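Discussion board: Methods & Data

I've been asked by a reviewer to show the raw model output for two of the constructs in my manuscript, not just the figures. I'm not sure how much to include, so I'm pasting the format here to get opinions. Each protein appears as its amino acid sequence followed by a line of discrete structure tokens. Is this the kind of thing reviewers expect to see in a supplement, or should I convert it first? Here is construct A:
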Amino acid sequence: MFILLIINCHLHSTGDKRRALLRGLTEALPQILPLLYSLVEKHFVAALSEHTRQQMELAKHHVGTVTAVLNAINAYAEWAPVTDLAKYGLIHGCGSLLSYSDFRLLACEFFKIVCHRKRPADVAVCEYDAAMSNIFQVLMNISQEFLTKSRMQPMAIDESEYEFGVCICETVVALGSSNMQCILVDGARTSHFLQQMLEYYQHYRIALHFQSLLFWLVALREPSKAKSVARVSGDTSPAGNFGSVGVSSTEKEKKGVSLFITDEIYSTLLDVSFKRMLKKSANSSSSLLELWNEELEGKSDFSNYRTKLSSSCE
């Protein structure tokens, strides 16, 4: 409760008071972050134990405590150094909670907040990229679980799990939009990431499709300079170019994601875009494919949506 009070004061302070409070909080991170981790671990284990013993009221109490601490962690995730979040176990801790329905949305929110942050100029690049690589692995694993289930057992996914899937997709898009340089250093990692983004684009639920559309619009606007470099070098293999001996991480980042977008990916993007150009009507097919309709929130109007689709085809 004391930690939450401090955060609340921080959010409502201004000027010199806010700067002084921020300095104090920053200096206290080596004490606060391990405390948050230990609280999550302690009460999570206690919740599982009480649930096993069928002590539901006690379990509910511990679940509430974990939820409150996760809210505090998410407040710190907005500004605490990513390297500190990794150092004191919060990335690992929140990653472990993604498999539990009571905590997965808040845990996913933690990753979404962190993934939206760009690499600061004054940070140790290796440490930051290592932390983001850990986040990448966590997100790819949980994302693949959702995609596999939705592909193999679409009718088994309820609305709460679908809501979680949307949150995961938004988080993965944020990772690719703000920290793609941490993915591009490895060819296999980049290909894996793009394959998942393509699966989201192909997804029958439009909210997942739409979130991935936002990523592809950015990725496809990248200059084609990278492909020219590949042709000049005589190696048109994305993995081959990025895996070449003597190619620095900086050069890999400069080449960009466009080097990995193959003809097959372009073909799939076009195919999906053409299918989704239609607007849902009373005579629409009852297939799983969910088309745009007026009831969707946060998707602007249909003409704007079609404009985005058209842009992905250019």
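Construct B, same format:
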Amino acid sequence: MDGCVVRLHTVKFKPKIDGSRGDFTAQPIKVHFYELLGISDATELVPQVDNKDILSSVVALFDVSLPDVGPRDVHDTVHSHGTHTIILLRQQSDVLEEYRSRTLPCPRREPVSSPVPAVVNGDRESEGRYLQVFSESEDSSDDSADEHEEGEEGTEPRSAWETFCTGLEEFLARARERRAQREAPVEDQQLPLTAVGAESLIVGAAAYELKTLSTGEKVLQLSLMATRKRYRNCGVGRYIIELLKTQSVCGAYDAFLAHADTDAVDFFSRCGLTDDALLNDKFREVRDEWTNTTLMSYLPPFTTESESCNPGFSLMLPELKLEVEMARTKALAAYQQQAVCVTRLVREVKTLREQVRLINHTSFEDILWNIQPG
């Protein structure tokens, strides 16, 4: 399990400027869900919380934050063989303390069984597609049972998406129960730890993939990224980007690529990524993988942070010299090609002007000849 789960140091985030939230801590965890969920006796990411509930919360967060993607595409991306996900999770004790100290709302008149968004935690972030997926799974419960029985008779195994959908109804039911516990506690009794689930712990997440392009360059491609609404403007998104730029966490790469929505271009620009069309044209192989987005890139320095911490590190690296020399040679060759092109264009213009002058002069002489008498 060590290869599919990497726990990083807990981080403290700043409070919101408007004072609506104080500072808080969260632990980043890098997870390979495809491998983790394939281990029958895998250790829980969070004590007393099913790993499948963590996956459901991540998919819910992405879906309510990026509704144009669709829940199935979100799940297939997060659960892909080549995708890793960085999740920021809060400690159960901290979240429970916040619940216990807050002012309780008025009791709800709706029954406990009323539908709520998958990411609840007392904050309706969306009434979007992820809720509809839960509804569809509830409506098709009989069909799911039939499929399960047919599978036992030797038909094709169920896909990861079908298996995931099977547990959605149970996850949503448990989320409703936890929310009911938080909103209607018994007098003179403290809120129990069971009222805190995966949907209450997640702060933000990012799914990425390391791939090699046809040019031979290895790139880190950010597929999905989102932060809970209540934790925005606290530095969470910028911290996730810094983790992705840290090769000791995500692995070595030649470029970090992101497909940014129109309203996210400024955010990625502030984090050091560029939308330069000429520069990013070299990555056109992945440009159209996400629609209605702008391809942005970050090129890391020649020296990684792990190399710079090496006692024997020297700035006069042979690789750096070779890279600079190659860049100089390519730049010189490009300049020579431009100079040749400009010179030939100038000569072409001179030739055309001479031809135009001769044509005009000949036409003028013809006119004079035609108007002479007899």
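Answer (T.O., handling editor elsewhere):
This is acceptable in a supplement if you add a one-line summary per construct. For B, something like: The beta strands are 5-7, 11-13, 24-31, 83-89, 202-212, 218-227, 255-260, 294-298.
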